[in-house]
Write a structure and sequence with these properties.
Elements lengths: L12 H39 L2 H16 L3 E7 L5 E7 L1 H7 L8 E3 L8 H5 L3 E3 L21 E8 L2 E9 L7 H40 L3 E6 L2 E5 L1 H7 L3 H4 L13 H12 L7 E7 L5 E13 L2 E10 L1 H23 L3 E6 L2 E5 L1 H7 L3 H4 L10 H15 L7 E7 L5 E13 L2 E10 L1 H23 L3 E6 L2 E5 L1 H7 L3 H4 L13 H12 L7 E6 L5 E13 L2 E10 L1 H30 L3 E6 L2 E5 L2 H6 L3 H4 L11 H17 L2 E5 L4 E2 L5 E2 L1 E7 L10 E7 L1 H53 L6 H27 L6 E5 H15 L3 E6 L6 E5 H18 L4 E6 L9
Parallel strand pairs: 30-32
Antiparallel strand pairs: 1-2, 1-6, 2-3, 4-5, 5-6, 7-8, 7-11, 9-10, 10-11, 12-13, 12-16, 14-15, 15-16, 17-18, 17-21, 19-20, 20-21, 22-23, 22-28, 24-27, 25-26, 27-28, 29-31
Helix pairs in contact: 1-2, 1-5, 2-5, 21-22, 23-24
Amino acid sequence: MPDQPKTHQEPTTENAILMERIRELEAKDEVRNWAGELIRVRLSLLEFAATHSLEELLQKTLDEVGVLSDSPIGFYHFVGKDQKTILLQAWSTRTVKEFCKAEGKGMHYGIDQAGVWVDCVRQKRPVIHNDYNSLPHRKGLPEGHPPVIRELVVPIMRDGSVAAILGMGNKPTDYTPRDIEIVSYLADVAWAIIERKRAEEALRESETKYRVLVETAADSIFIAQDGMIKFCNKNFADVSGYGPADLTNMAFSDLVHPDDRQMVFERYMQRLEGKDVPSRYRFRFIDARGNTHWADMSVALISWEGKPASLCLAADITGLKQAEEALRKSEEKFRHLFERAEEGILIVRGETLEFVNPAIERIMGHPMDKLTSGPFINFIHPDDQAEAIDRHLRRMRGEALAAVNDFRVITSDGTVKWITASSQVVEWEGKPANLNFITDITARKLAEEALRESEERYKGLVESSFAGVYVVQNGRFVFLNENAAAFTGYRPEELVGRRSDTIVHPEDLYGVTQKARDMLDSQYSSPYEFRIVTKGGQVRWIMETVASIHYNGSPAILGNSMDITGQKNAEIERQAALESLQAVRDLEKGILQSVPHALFGVERRQIFFANDAMEAVFGWKPEEVIGKSTRVIFRTDEEWAEYGAMLYSRLEKEPLTVFEWDKPFVRKDGSAFFCRMSVSRIGAALDANRRIVATFEDITDRKRAELEREKLQAQLTRAQKLESVGTLAGGIAHDFNNLLMGIQGHASLMMLGFDSSDPHHVRLKHIEELVRSGADLTGQLLGFARGGRYNVKPVSMNEIVEKSSAMFGRTRKEIRIHRKYAKDPCIAEVDRSQMEQVFMNLFVNAWQAMPGGGDIFVETEEVVFDEA
């Protein structure tokens, strides 16, 4: 509160005493009022802190202090433990909304760089600046910061250090010691609340982190109490295959493998008894699906809900155990290979051999205990010791050297051996060492020396060889003997350094390159041929072989060649002649194959050639019949002999004979057929081998057609005869019909003279019926004479059946005829005489089938037939 204004009158002593008393009473009331206000603010902040964040609490504190101190600006900043930095933390609501727009929350600010507002930190006491602008050591304000007129900043002290500062600014009147008391009190009260708030938030954050850590932990975490699982994280549930609810209050021993339960239980009990047992051990457990897992578990005793419990952290090491087992087997294999390796293995550290395998004893020629008991340099040949020591020291210093080098050693009996060592720096028992793989190359060195001597001898042979010898390296000639150069028309020195493919004929370049590669890859072993173009432009043929060699220490190709131009030209001429001969043979074969008839050659009555048509005619494939006797195409031995005698007698007289045999031949399947043959002898006359060529044409169809034609001719002749008979029958029928008409006329005239009851009338009537039957017969003859043209007209089939059956019944009394007619007349367009004859024939056939007599049933009925 601002100080009370001074009075302008000097009071009397009595009045002064009275006024002093009044001021004391007012001060007590004011103190009581301020005390009540501060208690209210403190309670308000405590209540506010329960439901708001730390940042909101800081701002609430500044707002309350600002009201009590009548300050529109307020800030609350933390001071680092090093007392050198300030963490800008919070500003009052009015400061943020009405005054300050500068950025800074969360920034760290060095105290040595700050202005007068941190004097309280430097001095560790409250500071008032009622005339801010007059301060000589003030510094500028950041952009967006309001002007400062006056300020009050108090430190919050803890354990002799400044923990935070609370500042008020721009009070309308000067700040007073009373303001310091109020602000310091509220700053200290707020800090106590802030510390508790920070502790609560830290605890809450810690609990959150712990919960996240436990739930997301890669290991299984659970708490066991009284042998039961009381808590577990998600990983434990996932690994065990049970749900968290299923695991809670489940006996932990139910998860442990039966073979490990006793061990786990004993350690659990010993731990509860306070005995010294390993806090970490491995055991097996069984998941919900019955699968066995290995677990690596660490255990600690804790208190859970007021009772002792075990906090267990377990990692599923099933994969690790499998890897350990695989590693164990791998180590066994490695040890087996190491001990039985043909290659020597040794480790050098310092000047001694720290380790050797059994193969070293064989290679070096010294027992293993001697090798590892002294400096390794003692076993190296004196001429190679200096270089070996130098390489070893340089390699141990980390210099880049060739990994493989050769040197000599001396065995126990004084023998000198060549060895090659592949070296690498490794760590051996925590220190650098030189790992070497040793191979005895004495035989190789001897072979190389022998090869060198052989190369010297070979060089002499090459120079004097008749063959062309050359060496190509990186695609260019590096050596040619005189003959190889002579083939090309160049001197050897003209070709050395030149690309080897420049002398190859362009058309052969690809082929010769490919064949050379195949030969080098052992895919092609025969010499190959190609053309070259000489210096003079001539084309010459070369035959060569190539092989891979080392020349002057580098890979190269050795070629051996010969000039085969003369042989090649002769071969080309011979090939042309053979091709001409083959063309003639192909023409002959084409002609023979184009013959549509079976054609084959015969020698001593055995087939030595046959064309493809042999199969079509005789059913024999050419390859099946060649070498067989011609007997296979004849039915009998007699016919085969008869045919041979007839054929060869003809060919004795003439070179070609064409004929048809009256006897059939036989196919492979046994079927018979007829052939037309054309046979010629081979040569001017038949010799002892009786070589002939024969063609056989299948004329079975033609023969069959001829027979059919003969049958048709016979039928035609018979038809012509029948036609003559028909003509004769027609004449006779006409004449006979005239006679019947005369008889009919006389009988009719005679019937006029007799009564119908007269016996003669009945006989005459019968004569008329016979005349009509005779007339029907002559009608049939006339129909036959007209070529089957009859007198067709509508008639009742009932009448025809009645008449023909009555006529037949009168002649054959032993046959009883039963008739049943349709109600309708059953009219049909037929020749009446013909139909009567048809029924008469049916009756006769039935009678002949019943020689002892019987019954014939005749019935007429109109029916309709569909198209089916």
